[in-house]
Design a protein that fits this description.
Elements: H1 21-38, H2 40-49, H3 61-65, H4 77-93, H5 101-124, H6 127-160, H7 169-194, E1 199-202, E2 205-208, E3 217-220, H8 228-244, H9 250-257, H10 259-281, H11 283-286, H12 291-321, H13 351-368, H14 379-382, E4 387-390, E5 393-399, H15 404-410, E6 415-422, E7 430-438, H16 448-454, E8 458-470, E9 476-486, E10 489-499, E11 502-504, H17 507-521, E12 526-534, H18 540-561
Antiparallel strand pairs: 1-2, 2-3, 4-5, 5-6, 6-7, 7-12, 8-9, 9-10, 10-11, 10-12
Helix pairs in contact: 1-13, 2-6, 4-6, 5-6, 5-13, 7-10, 8-9, 8-10, 10-12
C-alpha cells in the first residue's frame, strides 16, 4: 500500500453539480415561498403592527427608521443582507453536499421540532418565539438537503437572521432603562472629573448649573441614548465584522463578544459629550433636535466601528509578537476548507419537506386570518363605577375612547377608559382609569411602558408601590408606578396585571401565565388596570397620593366584578 498522501479535493464550485442546477433552484424558490407564507403572520406583527414607525405616513422615512419607539426598524434589512451573503457563498463554493443517514435523521428532528414550535407559538400568538423558530427550521432544512457540509457553508447567513426578530418589548424596556441609568451615571462621572462640569443625575435628567440668564439647565437623557438600540444594531454589524475580519478562529468570536462593551462605552462617550456641550453651549445644542445631539447619533457608530478596528489590530499585533499566525486575508477563508461529494446534488425539492411546508403554511395563514378583535359585551365597563368618593371629595366620570388602530393591536374591544374629575372642580384634580379585558389573547394585557414611550413621553422613574387595601380573598397586592415627562408636563401612572384570580406587576410572569392557561384550557383571560394622574405644579407627591387613594378604593370593587 502506498504511503503517498492523496491530494485533497478542491472545494465544490457552483458548476460542479450544474446538471441538477435547475431542480435545485426550483426547490429553493418553492421552499422559500412556503416558508414566507408560514411566517407571514409573525413578521407582519413584529415589523408592521407593533412598530408604529413603519406605518407613520406623516413623517419622513429617515425619521421613521430612527424613531424612538422602534428598536428593530432595521429588521427587514437583515434578510436582504443574509441573502446577499448566501449568494456570495453559492458563487464561491456552490452547494457542498454529503448526506448521511445520521445527518438526515438529525435534520428531520431539528426541522420537525422547530416547525412544531412555530405552529404552537403561532397558535398562541407568541410572535418573538415564532420568529426565532425560523432559524431552527432553516438549519434543519439545509441539513436534510445536503448534510453537514451544506450546513457549515450556509450557517452564517442563517445565524444572522437572529437579528431580524425583535425581543419582547417589555424586555427591551426594562433593559433599556437600566442601561440608560448606568450610561448616564458613568458619563456624569467622566464629565465631572475630567471636564470639570458641575452636574447631578436625577433619573433620566442631568441637572446642570444655571446659565447666563440665571435659569437652571436640564438635559434629558433619552432611551435611545442609553445603548440598547446601539447594541442591537451594532451586534448585527459586529457579526458581519467578525465573519469578514482578518482575525482567524476563536478571535472572531472574541470580536463579536466585544461588541457589547464597545456599544456601551460608545454611548457613555456620547452622553459625556452631550453633558459637556450642554454646559458650554446650552441645552438647545445638546437636547433632542439640537445639532450636536443629532450629529453625535452618527458619530457614536463611527466611534464604535473605530474601536472594533482597534481591537482587531491589537489582536493581530499580539499574534505577531507571539509569532502566531492569527491573520487570514481571505474573505471568509473557512469556505475553502468545506468539502462535499462532488457528484451529489442538494435535494432541495424533497417531496416530504414540501408537503409538510404546504400544510404548515395553510395552518398559519388560517390562524393569522382569524378575527383579531373579540367583543365581550362590556365586561370591563361593568367592573368600574361611574363615580367614586375619596375622603371628602366625590369624583364623577366621563368615558373616553381608544383609537381603532390601538384596538386592532390589542385585539379586543372590551375596555373601559374613564376620566374621573373633582365634582367641585375647584382644584382641577382628577385621574384616568383604563381597564383592558381580554378572554382569549394576550395582546390586551400589554406593558404600559410601551404605550407611554410610543406616545412620545420619556420615562424618568419607575418602581413598585404597596397599597393598604385588600381584595376579596384577603390577599394584599401592590402596583407599579411609572413617572414620565413630556416637555414640561409630568404624568404619574400606576398599574397592575390581572391573570385569573391573581395580580402581578411582572409582565413576563403575567404573559407566561396567560399563555399556559390558554394552551391547557383554551382560555387566556387577563386584564390590564392602569391609573393615570397629571402632575399639577410639579407636585409629584400629591399625584402619587391621589393615585394610591383611588387604587385602594377602586381595586376591591374591580376585583369583585371583573371575572
Amino acid at each position: 500500500m502506498s504511503n503517498v498522501e492523496k491530494p485533497k479535493p478542491d472545494p465544490v464550485s457552483p458548476g460542479t453539480n450544474a446538471s441538477g442546477g435547475g431542480r435545485l433552484w426550483v426547490g429553493v424558490i418553492v421552499s422559500t415561498a412556503l416558508i414566507a407564507l408560514a411566517w407571514y403572520g409573525t413578521f407582519e406583527r413584529v415589523w408592521v403592527q407593533w412598530f408604529p414607525s413603519w406605518w407613520r405616513r406623516d413623517t419622513p422615512l429617515l425619521d421613521r427608521l430612527s424613531g424612538g419607539d422602534s428598536y428593530y426598524t432595521h429588521g427587514p434589512l437583515v434578510p436582504v443582507v443574509s441573502l446577499a451573503i448566501a449568494f456570495y457563498i453559492y458563487m464561491r463554493v456552490g452547494t457542498p453536499t454529503k448526506r448521511t443517514k445520521q445527518s438526515t435523521l438529525l435534520g428531520w428532528a431539528v426541522f420537525g421540532f422547530f416547525l412544531m414550535a412555530h405552529l404552537l407559538f403561532t397558535f398562541a400568538s407568541v410572535t418573538f418565539a415564532s420568529g426565532f423558530s425560523l432559524l431552527g427550521v432553516l438549519m434543519g432544512l439545509v441539513m436534510i438537503w445536503g448534510g453537514w457540509p451544506l450546513v457549515r457553508a450556509y450557517a452564517l447567513p442563517i445565524a444572522l437572521l437572529f437579528f431580524m426578530v425583535p425581543l419582547p418589548l417589555a424586555w427591551i424596556d426594562g433593559i433599556n432603562f437600566e442601561l440608560k441609568l448606568f450610561a448616564s451615571k458613568a458619563a456624569l462621572w467622566i464629565a465631572t472629573h475630567f471636564f470639570s462640569v458641575p452636574a447631578v443625575v436625577d433619573g433620566s435628567y442631568v441637572l446642570l448649573s444655571p446659565g447666563a440668564d440665571g435659569l437652571p439647565k436640564t438635559l434629558v437623557i433619552e432611551n435611545v441614548c442609553g445603548g440598547l438600540r446601539s447594541i442591537i444594531a451594532l451586534t448585527f454589524f459586529a457579526a458581519l465584522f467578525a465573519a469578514l475580519c482578518r482575525a482567524t478562529g476563536a478571535w472572531r468570536w472574541f470580536l463579536l463578544l466585544m461588541s457589547f462593551p464597545v456599544a456601551i462605552a460608545s454611548n457613555v462617550a456620547r452622553i459625556t459629550g452631550l453633558i459637556v456641550v450642554a454646559h458650554h453651549l446650552g441645552t438647545d445644542a445638546a437636547g433632542e433636535g439640537g445639532w450636536f445631539h443629532d450629529l453625535s447619533g452618527i458619530l457614536v457608530f463611527a466611534l464604535a466601528l473605530a474601536l472594533m478596528f482597534l481591537i482587531e489590530s491589537g489582536v493581530l499585533l499580539i499574534g505577531r509578537l507571539l509569532k502566531r499566525n492569527w491573520l487570514d486575508d481571505r474573505l471568509m477563508g473557512y469556505l475553502n476548507t468545506i468539502q462535499g461529494d462532488q457528484q451529489a446534488v442538494a435535494r432541495t425539492g424533497h417531496p416530504g419537506v414540501l408537503v409538510v411546508l404546504v400544510l404548515s403554511a395553510g395552518l398559519c395563514l388560517y390562524w393569522s386570518n382569524q378575527p383579531e378583535r373579540e367583543a365581550m359585551g362590556g365586561v370591563a365597563k361593568q367592573s368600574l363605577p361611574t363615580e367614586v368618593a375619596l375622603e371628602d371629595t366625590t369624583y364623577t366620570s366621563v368615558d373616553l375612547a381608544l383609537e381603532d388602530k390601538v384596538l386592532a393591536i390589542l385585539e379586543t374591544d372590551d375596555y373601559v377608559y374613564r376620566r374621573f374629575v373633582n365634582e367641585k372642580g375647584s382644584d382641577g384634580r382628577g385621574f384616568d382609569l383604563l381597564i383592558v379585558f381580554s378572554k382569549n389573547n394576550r395582546r390586551g394585557t400589554h406593558s404600559p411602558e410601551l404605550c407611554i414611550q410610543g406616545s412620545g413621553e420619556k420615562i424618568v422613574s419607575k418602581g413598585p408601590v404597596a397599597l393598604s387595601s385588600v381584595l376579596k380573598n384577603n390577599q394584599s397586592f401592590g402596583m407599579r408606578e411609572v413617572v414620565s415627562q413630556d416637555g414640561r408636563q409630568m404624568v404619574y401612572y400606576l398599574y397592575v396585571f390581572k391573570t385569573g384570580d391573581s395580580y402581578t406587576t411582572n409582565y413576563t410572569k403575567q404573559q407566561a401565565s396567560i399563555l399556559i392557561n390558554g394552551l391547557l384550557r383554551r382560555e387566556a383571560v387577563g386584564a390590564l388596570i392602569r391609573l393615570t394622574v397629571s402632575v399639577q405644579d410639579d407636585d409629584l407627591e400629591a399625584a402619587r397620593q391621589l393615585a394610591k387613594d383611588a387604587a385602594s378604593r377602586l381595586m376591591p370593587i374591580i376585583d369583585e366584578k371583573l371575572p
